Amino acid sequence: RLREEAERAAADPNVGQPTEFEVGTAAALTYFAQAAVDVAVVEVGLGGRLDATNAVEPVVSVITPIGLDHTRVLGNTLAEIAAEKAGIIKPGVPVVCALQAPEARDVIAAKAKELGAPLYLAGRDFEGRLLSAGQEGTRFAVRWRDRWLEGLQVPLLGPHQAGNGAVAVAAVQLLSEAGFPVSEDALRRGLAAVRWPGRMELYPGKPALLFDGAHNAEGAQVLAEGIRALFPGQRPVFVLGMLDEKPIDAMLRILLPLGQAAVFTAARVGRGTPADPGDLARRAQGLVPSVGVERDPLAAVELARRWAGPDGLVCVSGSLYLVGELQGLLAGELRGARE
C-alpha cells in the first residue's frame, strides 16, 4: 500500500516524488499504527515546519537546544532556525522547551502564544541540577512545578545530560497529565536504562575510545566541556571528519587546543560532501601540536591509537556518519570492550 501511495504521489505534479525520508516516515507511522503502540516518540528529521514528521498530531511537543546547523536550509541566524523548529507547535498542545539563547527562546515563546500552546521553559517552569558527572554516567535532580525529583541517573556521559534529563522528565510529566500515566519508578528505570549511541560513548581499552557525533559548533562545545570534566589532565588524540557545509574552523578552534594530536579522515558513507582531510589538516595548523591525514577511517583510528599510547584517549568526532561507520567497522572489538 505504501508503494502504491508513493507512486500515486510521484505521478501527481502537485505533489511530486516523495523523498526517502518521507517514505521512511510513512512506513514508521504505519508500523506504529499496526502495532497499536501506546506512545510513539517521533523525532523531526530537519527543521520542523516542513518536515514529514509534522503531519503527526502530538500529545506533547519538545524543542531541544537550538544551534547553527543546516544553515543552507533553515537560515543563518538562531531566530530563523527557531522559527522552523517552532513549526512543530500545535494549537493548544503543551510545549517543553530546553534552555535556549534569548533570540531563539523569544521566537518559540511568540509562536506558542500565537497558537495558545502552554509553554514550559527550562529555567523557569522546570530545571535540572547536576549532582555528579563521571565516566560511569550522570546523576542529577529535576524540579517540576513545586517538587524536586532527587537522585535521577542516566548512563550517558557529560554534565549537559542534567539538562537533557530535565527536558525528558518534563515531557513525561506532561504525558502523564494528558492521560498516559508514568510512575516515578518507571521514570527512574527508564532513565537508568537509556542508551544514546555515538554521543559521548566511551569504550574502555588501551587506549580508550570516545565516540561523539558533534557536527556543529554547539555540539563541539558540549564535547569539549565533557572532555574537560570527565578526563581532567588528559589530552586526547582526535580522529576528525566533517562535511564541508559545517562550521569547520569554529569546531577546530573549540576542540583541537584540548588535544595532543589530530588525524583527519572522511566518512565513506552518508549524505553531503565530506571535507577534504588534507584541507582540514591545513586549517588545523597551529591549533594542535601534531597533525596527520589518513583518508581511510580505520587507518586513521589505528594511527591515532599509536599516537595516544596504551594509557591515552582517542576521540572520534565531527560527523555522525564517521562515528557510525567506524562503530560498524569496529563492532566486534567494541562489543568485547564492553563485556
Explained architecture:
By secondary structure, the chain is α/β, with parallel strands linked by helices. It has 2 domains: 2-193, UDP-N-acetylmuramoyl-L-alanine:D-glutamate ligase (3-Layer(aba) Sandwich), CATH 3.40.1190; 201-338, Protein-Tyrosine Phosphatase, Chain A. Helices cover 41% and strands 17% of the residues. It has 13 helices and 12 strands. The protein has helices at 2-11, 20-35, 71-74, 78-85, 102-115, 161-177, 184-193, 217-230, 248-255, 277-283, 297-308, 320-329, 331-338, and strands spanning 61-63, 95-97, 119-121, 126-134, 137-144, 147-154, 201-203, 208-211, 237-240, 261-264, 290-293, 313-317. The chain has a 6-stranded mixed beta sheet. A 3-stranded parallel beta sheet has the order 1-2-3, sandwiched between helices. Strand 7 (201-203) and strand 8 form a beta hairpin. The chain is globular. The N and C termini lie far apart (43 Å).
Please tag this protein with its features.
single chain, 339 residues, alpha/beta, UDP-N-acetylmuramoyl-L-alanine:D-glutamate ligase, Protein-Tyrosine Phosphatase, Chain A, 6-stranded mixed β-sheet, 3-stranded parallel β-sheet, 13 helices, 12 strands
